[in-house]
Amino acid sequence: MNLNMDNNPSVLKIKARYLTHPIISHPSVVFSCLWGLSLTLVSLKLVDAFSNHIDAAFILFCLVVISNVIGAITAAIVCSNINFPVKKKPISFLNVRKIFYIWLIVSVIEIFTANGLPIVWLLTGDSRTYADFGLPTLHGFANAMWLFLSFAQFVKVIDEKFRPQELLILLLLIFWPILVVSRALFTIWILQISFYLLISSPKKLRNIFLPNVALIIVFLYFFGIAGDLRSSFSITSSLGFDQEYVTLTAFLWAYAYIVSPLMNLALAWTTIQPSYHYFPENMLSELMPNVVKNILGFDRTFEGFAVLTHDAFNAITAFGGAYYDWGPFGVSLMAFLIGLVGHFIWRGARNSANLPLLAAYCACTALTIFTNQFTQLVPIVYMLMLAKLTTCKSYLVMRK
């Protein structure tokens, strides 16, 4: 690998950002806050459909948060005997241009193979959906490359002087999830850059706090409208409200998406008997490419999806698979491991300018209330790319 930064066009030269507020960036803090938010919304009992099994939800909250914190404390004890290297150097993303070319070629091949794009199918009324797009297995690696490219390009745009061509490349990358109708890709990207800005530029975020609040309100407004347009039912009437208000609809959609996964898991906790398989099939099946899963005959559909607090919301937290495989022990073990690994990543980032991996891990941690990113191939490959291809080099110009 050529590390000559002056002559290597495949390297993004960006300025260093350091961990200025370590506590708020700790994955266990992020984990506890998001799970606490969901439990708080549940305890308000705003909707009857999500008001049952609150006791089970509280037990789940205590189990996962305590296990996660214990994992972090265990890692902290181990870290006390480790001297982490101090790398006060700017970060660099290696081989970005090469990865971009590979991703572009793969994406073009997928478009020709699928005879179109999901956004076109959606607008023309085609029966195919985003799930029909992409070559099995290869599509996951392409998504991991997109996450790496879009984040690296974003960091370059905010750290360097404004260059229209760089901004254009970033906009083209951001436009890709819209073309393939992938909310998951866009959500992970938004969360990661949010955490990156939070832990590296807290002063800037404080200066734009009120505009951000206004932006969130606007986002919720359109989020609610989009939810109504995509669905064949009215969320207000389905959740027991007599009249439909646009603002109420917006907040109801956000409320339902935050609360329903926890309540679905709480319902499964009280009604579904874990399988206690020797191999945790439900928890680890998504680590395998679809080709391998088909050969082994794994079915990633949880039994608990047949038991829902509300028929319109079938999402479950990151610990659904762990519960169906190994019961409360599986839930506790997974939360412990998330806290353990998270502290190691956080501790290493404190002495380094390499914050992208920490931001990605925090984003996946935040999503545990909705889904499991830690046993999915795409986020794991992406974080491995960050760990391998993001480095600190002394021959970059230091941040002034």
UniProtKB/TrEMBL annotation:
<keyword id="KW-0472">Membrane</keyword>
<feature type="transmembrane region" description="Helical">
    <location>
        <begin position="23"/>
        <end position="44"/>
    </location>
</feature>
<feature type="transmembrane region" description="Helical">
    <location>
        <begin position="100"/>
        <end position="121"/>
    </location>
</feature>
<feature type="transmembrane region" description="Helical">
    <location>
        <begin position="250"/>
        <end position="272"/>
    </location>
</feature>
<feature type="transmembrane region" description="Helical">
    <location>
        <begin position="56"/>
        <end position="79"/>
    </location>
</feature>
<protein>
    <submittedName>
        <fullName>O-antigen polymerase</fullName>
    </submittedName>
</protein>
<feature type="transmembrane region" description="Helical">
    <location>
        <begin position="377"/>
        <end position="396"/>
    </location>
</feature>
<feature type="transmembrane region" description="Helical">
    <location>
        <begin position="133"/>
        <end position="155"/>
    </location>
</feature>
<keyword id="KW-0812">Transmembrane</keyword>
<feature type="transmembrane region" description="Helical">
    <location>
        <begin position="208"/>
        <end position="229"/>
    </location>
</feature>
<keyword id="KW-1133">Transmembrane helix</keyword>
<feature type="transmembrane region" description="Helical">
    <location>
        <begin position="353"/>
        <end position="371"/>
    </location>
</feature>
<feature type="transmembrane region" description="Helical">
    <location>
        <begin position="167"/>
        <end position="196"/>
    </location>
</feature>
<feature type="transmembrane region" description="Helical">
    <location>
        <begin position="326"/>
        <end position="346"/>
    </location>
</feature>
